[in-house]
Amino acid sequence: MTIKQAATAQDIEVVRELFREYEAWLGLSLCFQGFEEELATLPGKYAPPEGRLYLASVGEEPAGCIALRSLGDGICEMKRLYLRENARGLGLGRRLIEQVIADAREIGY
Fold first, then answer.
1. Do residues 81 and 66 make contact, with C-beta atoms less than 8 angstroms apart?
2. Which helix (H) or strand (E) element contains residue 57?
3. pLDDT tens, position by position, 43-84
4. 2-107, CATH topology level
5. Domain boundaries, the chain
6. Closest by CA position to 52, among listed 25, 30, 80
């Protein structure tokens, strides 16, 4: 299992696909959050230095994602934690959350 920052155009496209799977898994439209604009502008508000966008893999296969964004005034929000079904139960979600918490502390949130 690996976790890396989504940095390349290919990484961003995989995250975009995972975000769409996340929306489908939720079973509701995220249009009220400006979801289509978010997808079109990735990494957008999740870009460093204030944000983070991570892609997790199991072996060579993309397995999940998580994002961090600034809300201003030293406050941040974790967003879009999603794991594909075959990656659940492996501890990968916990590792993604721990990574985002560590980054939030490092950034100064």
1. yes
2. strand 52-58
3. 999 999 999 999 999 999 999 999 999 999 999 999 999 999
4. Aminopeptidase (3.40.630)
5. 2-107
6. 80
